[in-house]
Amino acid sequence: MPLTLTQAHAMVMIIAWMIFGSTGILFARYGRTIRLGNRRQLLGKAVWFQIHRLLLSLTPLLTLLGFFLILVRKGGQWVDLQVADLRSIMHSIFGGIIVCCTIVQLWLALYRCHPQSRYRYIFDWSHRIIGIVAFILTIPTIFLIILLMSRNRPDLIPIFSCWTAWMVVIIMVLEIIQQQQRSNITPVSNHVQMDDAKREKIHENVRHDTEAATNTNINHRRYDEFKFLLLTMHIIVTLTISIVFIVYICK
Q1: How many CA atoms are closer than 13 Å to the CA of 88, on its beta-carbon side?
Q2: Beta strand residue intervals within 54-213, DSSP E
Q3: CB 138 within 8 A of CB 98
Q4: Angle, nearest 10°, between helix axes 221-250 and 5-13?
Q5: Angle at 140 between CA 133 and CA 250, to 5 degrees
Q6: Distance (Å, rounded) from C-alpha 135 to C-alpha 132?
Q7: Neighbouring residues of 208: CB distance < 8 A, sequence distance ≥ 6
Q8: What pLDDT digit, counting tens, does each position of 105-159 carry?
Q9: Alpha carbon of 2 to those of 5, 55, 87: distances in Å?
Q10: Is the pTM of this model over 0.85?
Q11: Residue 4 has what DSSP assignment?
Q12: Cα–Cα distance measured from residue 83 to residue 97, given in angstroms and rounded to the nearest whole number
Protein backbone atom coordinates (compact mmCIF):
# COMPACT_ATOMS: atom_id res chain seq x y z
CA MET A 1 0.00 0.00 0.00
CA PRO A 2 1.49 3.40 -0.99
CA LEU A 3 2.42 5.81 1.79
CA THR A 4 0.00 8.72 2.16
CA LEU A 5 1.19 12.28 2.80
CA THR A 6 -0.29 12.11 6.31
CA GLN A 7 1.64 8.91 7.08
CA ALA A 8 4.81 10.42 5.60
CA HIS A 9 4.29 13.49 7.82
CA ALA A 10 3.95 11.26 10.90
CA MET A 11 6.99 9.16 10.00
CA VAL A 12 9.22 12.19 9.40
CA MET A 13 8.17 13.85 12.67
CA ILE A 14 8.74 10.64 14.66
CA ILE A 15 12.26 10.32 13.26
CA ALA A 16 12.94 14.02 13.83
CA TRP A 17 11.83 14.26 17.48
CA MET A 18 11.67 10.79 19.01
CA ILE A 19 15.03 9.69 17.58
CA PHE A 20 17.18 12.68 16.58
CA GLY A 21 15.71 15.33 18.87
CA SER A 22 15.70 13.30 22.07
CA THR A 23 19.20 11.90 21.50
CA GLY A 24 20.69 15.28 20.58
CA ILE A 25 19.21 16.92 23.67
CA LEU A 26 20.40 14.14 25.99
CA PHE A 27 23.97 14.37 24.63
CA ALA A 28 23.98 18.15 25.13
CA ARG A 29 22.81 17.79 28.72
CA TYR A 30 24.60 14.66 29.89
CA GLY A 31 27.32 13.87 27.36
CA ARG A 32 29.65 16.84 27.66
CA THR A 33 32.42 14.90 29.40
CA ILE A 34 32.16 11.77 27.26
CA ARG A 35 35.19 10.63 25.26
CA LEU A 36 35.73 8.45 22.20
CA GLY A 37 38.45 6.23 23.58
CA ASN A 38 40.99 8.73 24.86
CA ARG A 39 39.81 11.46 22.51
CA ARG A 40 37.73 14.27 23.89
CA GLN A 41 37.47 16.04 20.52
CA LEU A 42 36.18 15.05 17.09
CA LEU A 43 37.20 17.18 14.09
CA GLY A 44 38.32 20.03 16.33
CA LYS A 45 35.19 20.16 18.48
CA ALA A 46 33.96 18.28 21.55
CA VAL A 47 32.46 14.84 20.87
CA TRP A 48 29.15 15.81 22.50
CA PHE A 49 28.95 19.00 20.43
CA GLN A 50 29.52 17.22 17.11
CA ILE A 51 26.81 14.66 17.94
CA HIS A 52 24.45 17.37 19.17
CA ARG A 53 25.04 19.54 16.11
CA LEU A 54 24.55 16.67 13.66
CA LEU A 55 21.33 15.37 15.22
CA LEU A 56 19.86 18.79 15.94
CA SER A 57 20.64 19.91 12.39
CA LEU A 58 18.67 16.98 11.02
CA THR A 59 15.77 17.56 13.43
CA PRO A 60 14.71 21.01 12.10
CA LEU A 61 15.22 19.92 8.49
CA LEU A 62 12.92 16.93 8.99
CA THR A 63 10.48 19.07 10.98
CA LEU A 64 10.18 21.55 8.12
CA LEU A 65 9.82 18.66 5.68
CA GLY A 66 7.04 17.17 7.81
CA PHE A 67 5.32 20.55 7.98
CA PHE A 68 5.54 20.89 4.19
CA LEU A 69 4.06 17.40 3.68
CA ILE A 70 1.01 18.06 5.83
CA LEU A 71 0.62 21.52 4.28
CA VAL A 72 0.45 19.92 0.83
CA ARG A 73 -1.97 17.28 2.14
CA LYS A 74 -4.30 20.02 3.44
CA GLY A 75 -3.97 22.12 0.31
CA GLY A 76 -2.30 24.94 2.19
CA GLN A 77 -5.31 25.35 4.47
CA TRP A 78 -5.45 25.39 8.28
CA VAL A 79 -7.82 22.98 10.01
CA ASP A 80 -11.47 24.01 9.82
CA LEU A 81 -12.29 25.24 13.31
CA GLN A 82 -16.01 24.75 12.72
CA VAL A 83 -15.93 21.03 11.97
CA ALA A 84 -12.54 19.73 13.14
CA ASP A 85 -12.14 17.73 16.35
CA LEU A 86 -10.66 19.70 19.26
CA ARG A 87 -7.73 17.25 19.45
CA SER A 88 -6.92 17.91 15.79
CA ILE A 89 -7.11 21.67 16.36
CA MET A 90 -4.76 21.51 19.38
CA HIS A 91 -2.41 19.20 17.47
CA SER A 92 -2.12 21.78 14.70
CA ILE A 93 -1.58 24.65 17.16
CA PHE A 94 1.13 22.81 19.10
CA GLY A 95 2.70 21.71 15.82
CA GLY A 96 2.80 25.30 14.60
CA ILE A 97 4.52 26.40 17.80
CA ILE A 98 7.10 23.62 17.39
CA VAL A 99 7.81 24.69 13.80
CA CYS A 100 8.26 28.32 14.94
CA CYS A 101 10.63 27.20 17.72
CA THR A 102 12.57 25.16 15.16
CA ILE A 103 13.04 28.17 12.88
CA VAL A 104 14.19 30.35 15.79
CA GLN A 105 16.64 27.63 16.89
CA LEU A 106 18.15 27.49 13.42
CA TRP A 107 18.65 31.24 13.45
CA LEU A 108 20.18 31.18 16.94
CA ALA A 109 22.57 28.36 16.03
CA LEU A 110 23.74 30.05 12.84
CA TYR A 111 24.40 33.42 14.49
CA ARG A 112 25.53 32.34 17.96
CA CYS A 113 28.41 34.23 19.51
CA HIS A 114 31.77 32.71 20.44
CA PRO A 115 31.72 30.38 23.48
CA GLN A 116 33.98 32.79 25.39
CA SER A 117 31.94 35.90 24.56
CA ARG A 118 30.59 37.87 27.52
CA TYR A 119 27.13 37.65 25.93
CA ARG A 120 27.23 33.90 25.43
CA TYR A 121 24.86 33.29 28.34
CA ILE A 122 22.07 34.99 26.36
CA PHE A 123 22.42 32.43 23.56
CA ASP A 124 22.88 29.55 26.01
CA TRP A 125 19.67 30.22 27.92
CA SER A 126 17.50 31.17 24.94
CA HIS A 127 18.75 28.15 22.96
CA ARG A 128 18.16 25.87 25.92
CA ILE A 129 14.69 27.18 26.82
CA ILE A 130 13.35 27.20 23.25
CA GLY A 131 14.73 23.71 22.60
CA ILE A 132 13.21 22.27 25.78
CA VAL A 133 9.84 23.93 25.08
CA ALA A 134 9.76 22.51 21.54
CA PHE A 135 10.73 19.02 22.71
CA ILE A 136 8.25 18.93 25.60
CA LEU A 137 5.46 20.10 23.28
CA THR A 138 6.07 17.14 20.97
CA ILE A 139 4.72 14.77 23.62
CA PRO A 140 1.18 16.24 23.96
CA THR A 141 1.20 16.96 20.21
CA ILE A 142 1.70 13.29 19.40
CA PHE A 143 -0.63 12.11 22.16
CA LEU A 144 -3.45 14.32 20.84
CA ILE A 145 -3.32 12.89 17.33
CA ILE A 146 -2.96 9.25 18.38
CA LEU A 147 -5.93 9.67 20.72
CA LEU A 148 -7.85 10.77 17.65
CA MET A 149 -6.60 7.68 15.79
CA SER A 150 -7.10 5.28 18.72
CA ARG A 151 -10.41 3.91 17.43
CA ASN A 152 -8.73 2.41 14.35
CA ARG A 153 -5.24 1.97 15.82
CA PRO A 154 -5.58 1.28 19.57
CA ASP A 155 -1.97 0.06 19.87
CA LEU A 156 -0.50 3.51 19.22
CA ILE A 157 -1.23 4.85 22.71
CA PRO A 158 0.61 2.11 24.70
CA ILE A 159 3.54 2.24 22.23
CA PHE A 160 4.04 5.98 22.62
CA SER A 161 3.38 5.74 26.36
CA CYS A 162 6.31 3.31 26.63
CA TRP A 163 8.61 5.81 24.93
CA THR A 164 7.38 8.65 27.16
CA ALA A 165 7.95 6.54 30.27
CA TRP A 166 11.43 5.61 29.01
CA MET A 167 12.28 9.30 28.56
CA VAL A 168 11.24 10.07 32.13
CA VAL A 169 13.29 7.17 33.52
CA ILE A 170 16.45 7.84 31.46
CA ILE A 171 16.41 11.55 32.33
CA MET A 172 15.98 10.85 36.04
CA VAL A 173 18.81 8.30 36.09
CA LEU A 174 21.16 10.49 34.05
CA GLU A 175 20.35 13.52 36.20
CA ILE A 176 21.26 11.61 39.36
CA ILE A 177 24.57 10.49 37.82
CA GLN A 178 25.25 14.03 36.59
CA GLN A 179 24.75 15.53 40.04
CA GLN A 180 26.96 12.92 41.67
CA GLN A 181 29.66 13.53 39.08
CA ARG A 182 29.55 17.29 39.56
CA SER A 183 29.86 16.96 43.32
CA ASN A 184 32.97 14.78 43.02
CA ILE A 185 34.90 16.13 40.03
CA THR A 186 37.83 18.53 40.21
CA PRO A 187 37.89 20.80 37.13
CA VAL A 188 41.14 21.51 35.35
CA SER A 189 41.17 24.29 32.76
CA ASN A 190 43.08 23.49 29.56
CA HIS A 191 44.86 20.54 31.19
CA VAL A 192 46.85 22.82 33.51
CA GLN A 193 46.69 22.33 37.27
CA MET A 194 46.91 25.53 39.28
CA ASP A 195 46.71 26.55 42.89
CA ASP A 196 43.27 27.38 44.26
CA ALA A 197 43.68 31.15 44.26
CA LYS A 198 44.87 31.31 40.66
CA ARG A 199 42.19 28.89 39.47
CA GLU A 200 39.49 30.93 41.17
CA LYS A 201 40.72 34.14 39.57
CA ILE A 202 40.75 32.61 36.10
CA HIS A 203 37.31 31.05 36.51
CA GLU A 204 35.91 34.46 37.42
CA ASN A 205 37.11 36.06 34.19
CA VAL A 206 37.22 33.31 31.54
CA ARG A 207 34.35 31.34 30.09
CA HIS A 208 35.31 27.83 29.05
CA ASP A 209 34.94 26.84 25.41
CA THR A 210 32.42 24.04 25.94
CA GLU A 211 32.17 23.43 22.20
CA ALA A 212 35.87 22.53 22.06
CA ALA A 213 35.94 20.66 25.40
CA THR A 214 38.77 22.73 26.87
CA ASN A 215 37.34 22.32 30.37
CA THR A 216 38.27 18.77 31.32
CA ASN A 217 37.76 16.54 34.32
CA ILE A 218 40.40 14.34 35.81
CA ASN A 219 38.40 12.10 38.12
CA HIS A 220 35.51 9.66 38.06
CA ARG A 221 35.76 8.48 34.49
CA ARG A 222 33.43 5.63 35.43
CA TYR A 223 30.60 8.17 35.46
CA ASP A 224 31.30 9.00 31.82
CA GLU A 225 31.38 5.33 30.89
CA PHE A 226 28.07 4.71 32.66
CA LYS A 227 26.47 7.73 30.98
CA PHE A 228 27.74 6.60 27.58
CA LEU A 229 26.23 3.16 28.21
CA LEU A 230 22.87 4.71 29.13
CA LEU A 231 22.91 7.01 26.10
CA THR A 232 23.65 4.02 23.88
CA MET A 233 20.75 2.17 25.49
CA HIS A 234 18.56 5.19 24.78
CA ILE A 235 19.44 5.07 21.09
CA ILE A 236 18.60 1.35 20.90
CA VAL A 237 15.34 1.66 22.86
CA THR A 238 14.20 4.76 20.96
CA LEU A 239 15.02 3.23 17.58
CA THR A 240 13.09 0.08 18.46
CA ILE A 241 10.01 1.89 19.75
CA SER A 242 10.05 4.39 16.88
CA ILE A 243 10.21 1.66 14.25
CA VAL A 244 7.29 -0.18 15.87
CA PHE A 245 5.39 3.10 16.14
CA ILE A 246 5.92 3.92 12.46
CA VAL A 247 4.92 0.40 11.37
CA TYR A 248 1.61 0.64 13.29
CA ILE A 249 0.89 4.10 11.88
CA CYS A 250 1.60 3.08 8.30
CA LYS A 251 -0.15 -0.30 8.27
Answers
A1: 14
A2: 187-189
A3: yes
A4: 170
A5: 120
A6: 5
A7: 115, 116, 189, 214, 215
A8: 988 888 777 777 888 888 888 888 999 999 999 999 999 999 988 777 888 999 9
A9: 10, 28, 26
A10: no
A11: P
A12: 22
